[in-house]
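Subject: two folds for Thursday's group meeting

Dear M.,

Sorry for the delay on this. The cluster queue was jammed most of the week, so I only got both jobs back this morning. I'm pasting them in the order they finished. Each block is the input sequence followed by the predicted structure tokens. Could you check whether the formatting survives your parser before we put anything on slides? The first protein is the one we discussed after the seminar.
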Amino acid sequence: MLRVSENTLYIKFILKMMNFNSNNFKNQKINTLNKSMIYILSVLILTACNFKQDSTVGDTSLLEDRYQELLEYPVDSLSFPRSMSIKNGLIRKESSRDWTSGFFPGNLWLIYELTGNKEYMKRAIEWTAFMENEKYNTKTHDTGFMINCSFGTGYRATGNEEYKEVILETAKSLSKRFDENVGCIRSWDFGKDLWEFPVIIDNMINLELLFEATKVSGDSTYYQIAVQHANSTLKNHFREDNSTYHVVDYNSTNGLVNKKMTHQGYNDDSSWARGQAWAIYGYTMAYRYTNDSAYLKQAEATTKYYLNHKNLPKDGIPYWDFEDPNIPNSPRDVSASAVVASALFELYSYTKKKEYLNYSKKVLEVLKSNKYMLKADVKGPFILSSSTGHFPANDEIDEPIVYADYYFLEALLREKLTSVD
């Protein structure tokens, strides 16, 4: 629909073409010709009011409508929104213990940074408070996601010293999952019949909380753990073509690799799209804190693999797995494209390679289009459609998922900062 301001401009344009002055329109002598022209004007106005924008063009007002849906979502400590079924409108709600819980507070913080609207900050504060108990959680590696995306993003936005203390306490908890023999943080405690000491590529993102803890405290313990984990992953997770395995299982006694496999990809040797995204983002982020050229090299190498893959669609939104034999009749994963777009804005800042910037900008425009952005009448605290959570488990397929929104919003913010630079 055309907005009021657009309708007004359109009417004034038609009046000008009729040689009318909009200020004394009522005083004009209406002859037969003018009556005909007014009739035409009326038809054109009605047509304009029902005009729909091209689906390839981003709609700023639609994005603002989606922001409002997040703001209006009822505050409830047991209802962190994770995903949503468009077919029946059901929202999957989780407690703070779910690995995705920190993304929704983070989304509100990011919208506050993007818009300056303090209503989003107020709501972000409310939701972030519900996350605090997770600072003592030692049962998951995902406290990096959970706390860094909520308290970490909030700390960046406000400088709240209480948020810093939560980050530090969480870093202590996460560090307890580190094993010196393996040189990694253990990812999962489940599936003991499948693996001994599993480490997933996703875990690279959790290192940001440890790096940040050292940055704000001066305690190098967290930095050292993060570097050891990044180095072990660099050594064991990547194939010759610089794609990444999803899971590497280690021998907890001697640190040797037991096997390399997948849990969410098509098969053990395939390239799960979001796994490639985590690798690109993770090593770009690790370079930010360490200036280790090996990390930058790996980030660029996996980016090259990703951008040049024959099965990456022209719009930049990958299928859930690059080797799914059902391509092109396979679901896309918007979340993977959002993670990569955000990462490549940062990678561009280090390399000044335009292909990174071009990909990120293209993806943002595509995601802002009607093809991937939820329509205004969809009632749910999400922005984007068409993410794939866990395809082998038939879980969250082609749905809005909260972490896709987080990295999309972060990419928008990074684009804004890049244009300023």
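Second protein, same layout:
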Amino acid sequence: MAGDRNMLDSAEICRRLGILPADLEAMEDEGLITLAVILDGKALPSEQLDRLAMIVRLHKDLGVNLPGVDVILEMRRRMIQMRREVDEILEFIRQQVSRDLREMLGEEAFPMALGPGENFFALERGTRKTDAGTRRHGDTGEKDK
């Protein structure tokens, strides 16, 4: 291991992942990883070991060539980014709907639970609000004859 405990030297990386130094160099040449030059060779930041392990699985275990691995990793990165954006949009919509419902129904009369993971809001059972006031279910609004 390199002198810096956050760096793994190339021999340690190859041992952990069961690859040859030539494989590591090919991955670096393809631009899939960036090895740092240290006094006694090259090293990889330890936080990048999971990425390298994924590259090795795709290349060695699944037979994807290195340019194909690059395409897969880029698509994965874009999908993660898009998921973050969708989550932000959904959170914005949830906040807007919650705010609008609170405004429309009145927070004191109709306490709502629209937090993350909650789907329903509390309404007074058996009644509904109308322009003419409150009516019971089944009430047609006609006067008794």
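Two things I noticed about the second structure. The chain has four helices and five strands. Residues 7-64 form a domain with the Multidrug-efflux Transporter Regulator; Chain: A; Domain 2 fold (CATH 1.10.1660.10).

Cheers,
T.
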